Amino acid sequence: QVELVESGGGSVQPGGSLRLSCAASGFSFSRYALGWYRQAPGKERELVASIFSVSSSSAYADSVKGRFTISRDNAKNTVYLQMNSLKPEDTAVYYCNAVHWVYSDRNYWGKGTLVTVSL
Fold this sequence. Notes:
29% of the residues are buried. The chain has strands at residues 3-7, 10-12, 18-25, 32-39, 46-51, 58-60, 68-73, 78-83, 92-100, 107-109, 113-117. The protein is mainly β.
């Protein structure tokens, strides 16, 4: 059974840091591109960061470049999102996503973890 489980969300003050984790099971993790998305209240879900399966190269939304870092540990079937210098506008539910590098219909989502940035 495919499963993606996010953890590490919580409340933090502006300027603070959080590290999100997403533990995967039930599929060949190393063959999947991984992404972190977020959805703020009243807004559409947006891609925050992604990391690819073969090269492990990464890409970021302009709004988080220089503040967030995505990484993966294929031995642990886990993807991480290190978030630094957090801003109130980073407040959202953060979702983990996995897409097979060849078969894009193999597309899985976690249930999300809430990040709240406020004083």
